[in-house]
Structure formats: C-alpha cells, structure tokens
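Pilot study result, target chain (227 residues):
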Amino acid sequence: MSERLAGILVSSFTRILIPGIKVTIPLTLLSFVFGCIIALFLALVQIANVKGLKQFARFYIWVFRGTPLIVQLFIIFFGLPSVGIILDAFPSAVIAFALNLGAYNAEIFRSAIQAVPEGQTEAAYMVGLSYRQTMTRIVMPQAFRIAFPPLFNSLIGLTKDTSLASSITVVELFTTAQQIAARTYEPFALYCEAAVIYLIICTVLTWVQNYFEKKLVWNAPTPVKGE
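Predicted structure:
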C-alpha cells in the first residue's frame, strides 16, 4: 500500500463513519420501528380474519415482497412528485424501507403469534380475559420471544440495505464513500473501507442480538428428583 493511499484511508475513515452514525443508523432505526408497526398490524389483521382487511394485508405483502426495493424507492422519491406529492430524500427512504420491511416482518409476527399454543388462549378466555387482555398479557410476550431472532436479523439486513438510499441522493455512509472515491480515484480502497464500516456496525448489532437472545431464553423447569 502506497503512502498516499494509506493517508487517504486514514483521513476518510471518520468522514465515512460520521454519516454512518448521523444518517445510516437513524435511517435504519426509524425504518425498522415503523416497519414493525406496519408488520404487526398486518399480522393481527390476518390472524383476526377481519373481512376485507385480510385480503388487503395479503395484497400488500404480495406487492411489496414481489417488487424490488430499489424500484419502491424510485416510485416514492421520483414518481410521487408527478402526482403532486413531493418528499425529501430522507423521509422518502424511511417510507420505502418501512413499507418494504413491513411486508417481510408481517410473516415473522404472524408465525410467532400462531406458534403460541392455542390452549393458552382458550384458557385465558375461560378465566374471563378479553381478546385485548389475552393478546397483550398472554400471547404477545411469548410471540415476541419467538420473533426476536428473525426480527433482529431483519434489522441487520436493513442496515446493509440502507446503502440503496444513495440512489435517491441520501448522503449516508455509502454515498460519502462514493464521493471520496470520485475525488481521489481510489474506488476499490474506499468501497472496501465502506464495507469494513458496515461490517463493524453489523457485528456490533450481532453482539447485541446474542446478548438479548440469552436474556430471553426460556428457563426450562428443573426436574424433581425421583420422578
């Protein structure tokens, strides 16, 4: 490695990392939170079998899982202005990522809720709990534990997908790397450096996931001696 290239990589590291902290991470977290809200609504609608809404939920999931994320980004940022809806790049990215994530995470929530033994729901109704109380006190706490690993995996995947926001002018981590690469004529080194930063962020998230997974592990009862 030449002295010039080493200097470029050292000086560019913080300039790439700062947009990652200021833009990429907030973009990821906001998209994930809104996406999970959408996903939970879609899952509950399907499980409750609400006429009309169930078909809408299935249609929504079919559309957003069946079309490329980058096309959805372009429709929201470049397409909506043609019908009079103009959004800045950052909120456009949040909306696109949240809508897309909602379609995928809806199946995670639905599967997790349905994995809770049906007998527990019936028992809750028998002791007089309402549907809302049953869901909030009995079903959802257990479903959350089941859904946590795949949900966190989707968060890690979303962190990497935010690089697509560069295509609609969001100045995030990857966009900054592109700009520096264009000025220094060192695309290979700068893109590798951006990849390393993404890897660091995703590794930290993986550590967080492993920590909370251990906290959420079901504690199996200890067998009584002599049984």
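One observation from the pilot: The domain at 3-215 is CATH 1.10.3720.10 (MetI-like fold). A full batch analysis is planned for the follow-on phase.
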